[in-house]
């Protein structure tokens, strides 16, 4: 039996090693590349680890943002930091608003027996079956006509409608796990429904709210299609749009492109790893980042 | 009354950005509506649709879309299942591996495309260097420059960020299977493959169906990674319907034609979802 379990562990760790390389290997290579000189990147064979650690491409992003054209860095590098800020503003607002609006909608779905409850829940979820591409055409057309194109608020609004169904679904299933007795006690003490939600439900649902907020942030951060179609000037570019401008340009040095890629995934990866418990439980309660 | 009041903000936001545009999209798809020819918009009934359905510019991308989607679903489901089986075993370090799965998952699709573009670079890519060192190739290859390698690598790159979620879902499915079923199967002399075939797979079936349906829906509307990695090329080899809709609408500015093909893609996606649901769900009941 001892022999057997040692063999078992050996097989498991061999598989685990393959999985580990497959999971983080490609990304670590991107990180390693971003700390090298451009000429080192063009070496054959490639250099696995940066030696020395070069921060030029990171400095380029800051210099470009501060000095503008004077800095002499590529156009994309100059606008990158601004777009990074835009992404933060959009994803942050989406996360906050989605949780507030989502909890309000999720509460009656979880707690009240009203006519049309199932229709409402199903309708909210089914709205996500319509491909974003078919909605993009009218949205762009209308946004341009009413002067809402090229504005961050429009992207906040659109991202909200994409994350709300997931957030509502996740929160209503979370609210159901909170014992009804606590709420009844609050009602007897004379709290109104809204007070019950604010004073009793929300504090207890903090893990659920956290996972909903993080998921909303990550979805909004990674959104590309609408960010691309609804931005006309660098003032409203998001980081995914600038990354795509980098990646489809053949004249920019590899190291600048790679560094932009690395920097633009720092927030989502850091959040994902810090809040991994919340995210995994949130994902498994039926929410999906698509 | 309270329910209406509470859910009103969410419903208004969703209706304003999903239902209303959907209505407009249907309207556009029934009109000749090209921004290059302003003032010539007119109602043409189903002409946009019949034009597409008799045009190889629709059927060719449709075929490409299905090749991509089927490939992606197969790769995602098979690898996710293997990874989930591994992570369902108890061993020190399991939690860390599970947490690290979130790294690819958190990477936006556009950055993922950039990452694979660098890995597969024909002159300086890491993969070329590794293959060269292993003696698999004698000179560096441009795998994104020809068929069928471009489709294979597109599927792999796309799947890389989609595998983690599928894995976590399958893992949660595996964890609902009671351990004593396996124990009694071992007593009865069932080997590891028999246990997988006769216990794991049947009991995992409903979760497996959910994963397959979701991944199919996502893969059929692929766009982001195409935009950065291949732009539909080389020579239309990766021109999926998502890319056709984009070029038709936002490069040729033909909003009528673009809307109608987007509707067709929506209908196909919905049809596939229902087909899979019925097919897989019936299997579960048997």
Extract low-pLDDT stretches of chain B: none
- Structural class category of chain B: mainly alpha
How do the helices and strands follow one another from N- to C-terminus of chain B? HEEHHHHHHHHHHHH
Strand content of chain A: under 5%
* CATH architecture level-2 label of the largest domain in chain A: Orthogonal Bundle
Structural class of chain A: mainly alpha
CATH architecture designation of chain B: Orthogonal Bundle
Q: What would you report as the Rg of chain B, rounded to the nearest angstrom?
A: 23 Å
Relative helix content of chain A? over 70%
Which residues of chain A sit in consecutive blocks of at least 5 with pLDDT less than 50? Answer: none
Shape assignment of chain B = globular
Q: List the chains of the largest interface with their residue counts.
A: A-B, 88 and 83 residues
Strand line-up in the sheet with most strands of chain B: 1-2
| Beta strands of chain A, count | 0
Topology:
The complex is a heterodimer of chains A (290) and B (286).
Chain A: H1 2-34, H2 38-41, H3 56-67, H4 75-111, H5 117-126, H6 132-145, H7 152-175, H8 180-188, H9 193-204, H10 206-222, H11 225-229, H12 239-247, H13 254-274, H14 276-284
Chain B: H1 2-29, E1 31-32, E2 42-43, H2 47-53, H3 56-88, H4 94-100, H5 102-106, H6 109-119, H7 126-133, H8 149-174, H9 179-187, H10 192-220, H11 224-229, H12 241-251, H13 255-285
Antiparallel strand pairs in B: 1-2
Helix pairs in contact in B: 1-13, 3-8, 3-10, 8-10, 10-13, 12-13
In short:
Chain A is mainly α and 290 residues long. Chain A has helices at residues 2-34, 38-41, 56-67, 75-111, 117-126, 132-145, 152-175, 180-188, 193-204, 206-222, 225-229, 239-247, 254-274, 276-284.
């Amino acid at each position: 039996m001892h022999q057997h379990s040692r063999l078992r562990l050996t097989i498991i760790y061999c598989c685990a090693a393959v999985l580990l390389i497959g999971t983080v290997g490609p990304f670590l290579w991107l990180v390693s590349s971003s700390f090298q000189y451009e000429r080192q990147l063009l070496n054959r064979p490639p250099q696995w680890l940066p030696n020395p650690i070069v921060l030029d491409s990171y400095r380029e992003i800051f210099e470009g943002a501060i000095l503008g054209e004077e800095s002499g860095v590529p156009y994309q590098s100059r606008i990158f930091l601004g777009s990074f800020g835009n992404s933060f503003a959009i994803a942050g607002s989406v996360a906050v608003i989605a949780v507030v609006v989502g909890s309000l909608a999720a509460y009656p779905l979880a707690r009240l027996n009203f006519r049309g409850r199932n229709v409402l829940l199903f309708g909210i979820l089914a709205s996500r079956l319509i491909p974003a591409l078919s909605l993009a055409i009218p949205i762009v057309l209308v946004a341009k006509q009413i002067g809402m194109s090229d504005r961050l608020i429009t992207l906040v609004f659109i991202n909200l409608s994409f994350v709300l169904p997931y957030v509502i679904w996740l929160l209503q299933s979370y609210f159901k796990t909170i014992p009804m007795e606590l709420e009844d006690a609050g009602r007897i003490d004379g709290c109104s429904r809204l007070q019950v939600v604010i004073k009793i439900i929300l504090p207890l649902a903090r893990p659920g709210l956290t996972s909903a907020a993080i998921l909303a942030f990550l979805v909004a951060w990674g959104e590309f299609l609408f960010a691309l179609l609804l931005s006309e000037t660098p003032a409203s570019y998001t980081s995914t749009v600038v990354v795509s401008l980098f990646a489809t340009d053949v004249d920019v040095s590899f190291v600048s492109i790679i560094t932009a890629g690395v920097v633009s995934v720092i927030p989502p990866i850091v959040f994902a790893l810090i809040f991994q418990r919340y995210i995994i439980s949130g994902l498994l309660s039926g929410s999906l980042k698509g | 009354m309270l329910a209406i009041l509470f859910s009103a903000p969410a419903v208004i936001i969703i209706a304003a950005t999903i239902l209303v545009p959907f209505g407009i999209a249907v309207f556009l798809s029934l009109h000749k509506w090209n921004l290059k020819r302003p003032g010539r918009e007119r109602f043409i009934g189903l002409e946009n649709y019949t034009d597409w359905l008799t045009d190889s510019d629709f059927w060719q991308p449709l075929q490409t879309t299905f090749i991509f989607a089927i490939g992606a679903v197969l790769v995602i489901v098979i690898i996710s299942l293997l990874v989930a089986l591994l992570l369902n075993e108890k061993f020190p370090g399991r939690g860390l591996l599970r947490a690290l799965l979130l790294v690819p998952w958190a990477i936006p699709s556009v950055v993922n495309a950039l990452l694979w573009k660098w890995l597969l670079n024909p002159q300086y890519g890491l993969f070329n260097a590794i293959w060269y060192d292993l003696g698999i190739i004698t000179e560096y290859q441009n795998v994104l420059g020809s068929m069928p390698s471009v489709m294979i690598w597109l599927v792999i790159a796309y799947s890389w960020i989609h595998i983690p979620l599928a894995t976590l879902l399958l893992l949660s499915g595996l964890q609902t299977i009671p351990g004593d079923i396996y124990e009694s199967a071992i007593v009865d002399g069932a080997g590891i493959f028999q246990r997988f075939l006769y216990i794991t797979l049947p009991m995992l079936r409903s979760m497996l169906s959910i994963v397959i349906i979701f991944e199919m829906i996502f893969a059929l509307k692929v766009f982001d990674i195409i935009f950065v990695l291949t732009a539909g090329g080389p020579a239309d080899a990766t021109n999926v319907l998502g890319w056709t809709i984009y070029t038709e609408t936002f490069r040729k500015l033909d909003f009528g034609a673009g809307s109608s093909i987007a509707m067709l893609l929506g209908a196909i996606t919905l049809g596939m979802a229902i087909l899979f649901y019925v097919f897989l769900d019936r299997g579960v009941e048997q």
